[in-house]
Design brief:
Elements (H helix, E strand, L loop, with lengths): L5 H25 L3 H7 L4 H5 L20 H8 L14 H14 L7 E6 L2 H9 L13 E5 L4 H14 L2 E5 L5 H7 L4 E7 L11 H10 L4 E4 L17 E5 L13 E6 L9 H5 L1 H7 L1 H5 L5 H11 L2 H20 L4 E5 L9 H7 L5 H5 L9 E6 L2 H11 L4 E2 L9 E3 L11 H6 L6 E5 L5 H12 L3
Parallel strand pairs: 2-3, 2-4, 4-5, 5-6, 10-11
Antiparallel strand pairs: 1-7, 6-7, 8-9, 9-12, 11-12
Helix pairs in contact: 1-4, 2-5, 5-13, 14-19, 17-19
Bound molecules: pyridoxal-5'-phosphate.
């Protein structure tokens, strides 16, 4: 143990008291319902009194924190008293967002969960995965096992790990096939990665079964749960160890910010890495790798996300109800070959979607738990790439953008946008043909969306 002067010790003691008060507040909020947590997070009346009484979490745009004295500075920089020091490392506004995310992602999960925000969803995936691929002389031939039905940026990142760091990437081409996962995982595997429902293919996998396979080798299962959000799926309840999010999507539904986060359960199964990494991965990431690499989120962006999160559950419920109507409508159109939406019984992963995707606290609204399948779908236009482009170009209300999870409906053609750089072979194996349009349903009235799609499909 490091020795501190009596002056520094005073700040350590004050800090311990603040940490205890915050733990009590956290316990109080953990007993609340999902919406109450989303609206309030950890920001309390007591915290407001230290912020001019502001009932909204204040944005601290200051790059750095002023210290009362050298003793205060020493305690803060030795990481022995809670403080925020410098906004690359921490910031009070980021802290409120992280605490809300940890509470939402841990909703209904009996263990402890912590979260760390990042400047984008890709930064979250990077921060969640790189610590596990560090060189280890005892384990010289590292591999990772990942679903190929994942976000285009994630596919490119893992391909970069292969190219630049010599990591063997064992892609799971059909994540519904448990044998494919099982065949990839061995004693040299550093982590297992899955995304569900996936963007853009809406692929599912059996989370619980894959978590068990990873845990048999004492390695973590990392899940990108961006599309579902904690309002529909909390992967840690089913055995996942780390969850990554792009907060730029539905969790930041207004579209005012690029942001990301990782949430992790405490006491990770991991055979390598520092003891602190395993004890509390999110706190470790924040204090060490994130500090050194620097992909922190701006306090302004954090505040935008805090604001959007308050209404997350109601939005995803409404959007999911609209999406079912739009998916049924599309499936009935002669110009549409097929529709991929987890809520359609014809969907290969439908049974898994029914098992895993539930509206948080749905029983309180509807008298019994309800499945909700989200706002994202994709459909294939009959007549190939050219017909798909004509339909896409004909949209008048639905925006053309590489974006999703917005209050505004948005469409994209993945082969010419998000998945342009992967190459034909990969797109074919990942089931992304050029006539596929990805559609993200917003909060408009579904009748207006269907009218727009009807007139656009007439151009096929
Ligand atoms: C958008 C997205 C990402 C990347 O997030 P950014 O915030 O754009 O960096 C990762 N995963 C999924 C599923 C996404 O949709």
């Amino acid at each position: 143990m490091q020795e501190f002067s009596a002056g520094v010790q005073r700040y350590i003691d004050l800090g311990a008291e603040a940490t205890r008060a915050e733990a009590a507040r956290r316990a109080e909020m953990r007993a609340c319902k999902f919406d109450t947590i989303a609206v309030h997070g950890l920001y309390s009346m007591e915290a407001a009194l230290a912020n001019q009484g502001s009932i909204i979490e204040p944005a601290y745009f200051s790059s750095a924190q002023h210290f009362e004295s050298s003793d205060h500075m020493e305690a803060a920089l030795a990481y022995v008293a809670p403080s925020w020091t410098y906004s690359r490392i921490a910031n009070p506004t980021l802290h409120y967002l992280e605490e809300t995310l940890a509470l939402l992602e841990g909703y209904g999960f009996p263990g402890e969960v912590s979260a760390c925000t990042t400047g984008s969803g890709m930064a979250a995936t990077y921060m969640a995965t790189t610590p596990f691929i560090a060189a280890d002389p005892a384990r010289p031939r590292p591999n990772i096992v990942a679903s190929a039905r994942c976000y285009g940026g994630t596919f490119m990142l893992f391909s970069r790990y292969a190219r630049e760091r010599g990591i063997e990437v064992r892609w799971v081409w059909n994540p519904l096939d448990l044998d494919e996962w099982r065949a990839g995982i061995d004693e040299h595997t550093r982590f297992v990665f899955g995304e569900m429902p996936s963007n853009p293919g809406l692929a599912m996998f059996d989370l619980r079964a894959v978590a068990e396979m990873a845990h048999a080798y004492q390695i973590p299962l990392i899940v990108d749960s961006t599309i579902a959000t904690p309002a529909l799926l909390r992967p840690m309840q089913h055995g996942a160890d780390i969850v990554v999010h792009s907060l730029s999507k539905l969790m930041g539904s207004s579209g005012f910010a690029i942001a990301g986060a990782l949430a992790a359960r405490h006491d990770l199964p991991a055979r390598s890495g520092a003891a602190e990494l395993r004890a509390n991965f999110a706190a470790y990431t924040k204090l060490y790798p994130l500090r050194d690499i620097g992909p922190s989120i701006s306090p302004f962006n954090a505040l935008m996300i805090i604001n959007d999160l308050r209404t997350l559950r109601g939005k995803i419920d409404r959007m999911s109800v609209s999406a079912v109507q739009v998916a049924d409508f599309l499936a009935a159109q002669p110009a549409v070959e097929q529709v991929a939406y987890p809520g359609l019984p014809s969907q290969p992963g439908h049974e898994l979607a029914q098992r895993y995707l539930w509206l948080a606290d749905g029983a309180d609204d509807y008298g019994a738990p309800v499945n909700r399948y989200g706002y994202l779908m994709s459909f294939n236009v009959r007549g190939g790439a050219e017909a798909a482009r004509r339909v896409f170009d004909g949209l008048r209300l639905i925006w053309r953008a590489t974006d999703l999870g917005r209050v505004k409906s948005v469409a994209a053609i993945p082969t010419i946008s998000t998945h342009q750089q992967q190459g034909e072979e990969v797109r074919r194996k990942a089931s992304l043909p050029p006539n596929l349009i990805r559609l993200s349903i917003g909060l408009e009235h579904p009748a207006d969306l269907m009218a727009d799609l009807r007139q656009a499909l007439a151009r096929a």
